[in-house]
C-alpha cells in the first residue's frame, strides 16, 4: 500500500516549548495510552500549555487575501454544521492558528474534526473521547493540567488535537495513513484514514 507522507515537524513541535459520517455521530476510536519519555512529555506539555491568542499571522497583503478567501470558502461549507456566522468565524480563526502552529494542513484538521465530531463542541464518543477532535481524557493527565473538562473549550481542544496528531505523525515518520490510524486507535486499518482523507478532500484550498 502506498501511503501519503507528510514532512516531519518534530523540530517545530519541540520549538513550541516555545466515506463521510452524517451529522451527529462521534467517530473517535479508543486512542491508546502509551508510555512517554520525560523529554517527550515535557515537550508536549509545553506545546499545549503555551498561551497565545489565536490571531492569524498574516505579514503580507497576499497572505491576508488568501486567509480571507479561505475563511469565505470554509465558512460556506461549515454552514451545514454551524449556522451562526460569528461562531463559524471564531472556529475557523482558531483552527487556522492551531493547525499552522502544529505544522498541519488546514484541510487535514478540518477533515479530522468532521469525521471525529461532525463539528460538535460537546461531542463525547462511546470510548469517552471529548470535543471537536475527540481527545481522550488521559491526554489531559499526561500532558495537561489534569482537568479533562477543559477539553470542551474550543481552543484547548483544537490545540490538544493538533499537537497530538502532529506527535503521532512524527512517530510514524510522516506516514499519514498510519498516523491517522494511531490517532484513532485503529493503526493499520483503513476505514478511519480513508474517511478522514475523503473528508479532507472537501476542504482543500490554496491556503493549505
Average of the residue pLDDT scores: 87
Instruction: Indicate the overall shape.
Output: globular
Terminal CA distance: 25 Å
Low-confidence stretches: 8-25
**Number of structurally distinct domains:** 1
The total count of strands amounts to 0
Task: List the total number of helices.
Answer: 9
User: How big is the Rg?
Assistant: 16 Å
Give the SSE order as H and E letters: HHHHHHHHH
Helix and strand arrangement:
Blueprint: H1 10-14, H2 38-49, H3 61-78, H4 85-102, H5 106-117, H6 138-143, H7 154-171, H8 176-184, H9 191-200
Helix pairs in contact: 3-4, 4-7, 5-9, 7-8, 8-9
Quick structural overview:
The chain is built from nine helices and no strands.
Word description of this protein:
This protein is mostly helical and 208 residues long. The protein has one domain (62-208): Orthogonal Bundle (Lysozyme). The protein has 9 helices and no strands. Helix 3 (61-78) crosses helix 4 and helix 8 crosses helix 9 (191-200). The chain is globular.
Amino acid at each position: 500500500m502506498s501511503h501519503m507522507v507528510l514532512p516531519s515537524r518534530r523540530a517545530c513541535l519541540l520549538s513550541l516549548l516555545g466515506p463521510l459520517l452524517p451529522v451527529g455521530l462521534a467517530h473517535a476510536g479508543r486512542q491508546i495510552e502509551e508510555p512517554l519519555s520525560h523529554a517527550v512529555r515535557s515537550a508536549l506539555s509545553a506545546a499545549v500549555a503555551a498561551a497565545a491568542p489565536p490571531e492569524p499571522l498574516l505579514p503580507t497583503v497576499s497572505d491576508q487575501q488568501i486567509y480571507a478567501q479561505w475563511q469565505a470558502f470554509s465558512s460556506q461549507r461549515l454552514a451545514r454544521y454551524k449556522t451562526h456566522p460569528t461562531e463559524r468565524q471564531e472556529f475557523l480563526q482558531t483552527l487556522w492558528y492551531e493547525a499552522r502552529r502544529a505544522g498541519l494542513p488546514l484541510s487535514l484538521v478540518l477533515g479530522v474534526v468532521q469525521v471525529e465530531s461532525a463539528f460538535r463542541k460537546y461531542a463525547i464518543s462511546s470510548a469517552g473521547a471529548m470535543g471537536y477532535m475527540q481527545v481522550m481524557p488521559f491526554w489531559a493527565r499526561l500532558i495537561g493540567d489534569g482537568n479533562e473538562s477543559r477539553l470542551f473549550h474550543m481552543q484547548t481542544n483544537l490545540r490538544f488535537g493538533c499537537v497530538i496528531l502532529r506527535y503521532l505523525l512524527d512517530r510514524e515518520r510522516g506516514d499519514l495513513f498510519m498516523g491517522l490510524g494511531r490517532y484513532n486507535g485503529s493503526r493499520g486499518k483503513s476505514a478511519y484514514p480513508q474517511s478522514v482523507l475523503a473528508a479532507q478532500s472537501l476542504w482543500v484550498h490554496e491556503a493549505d
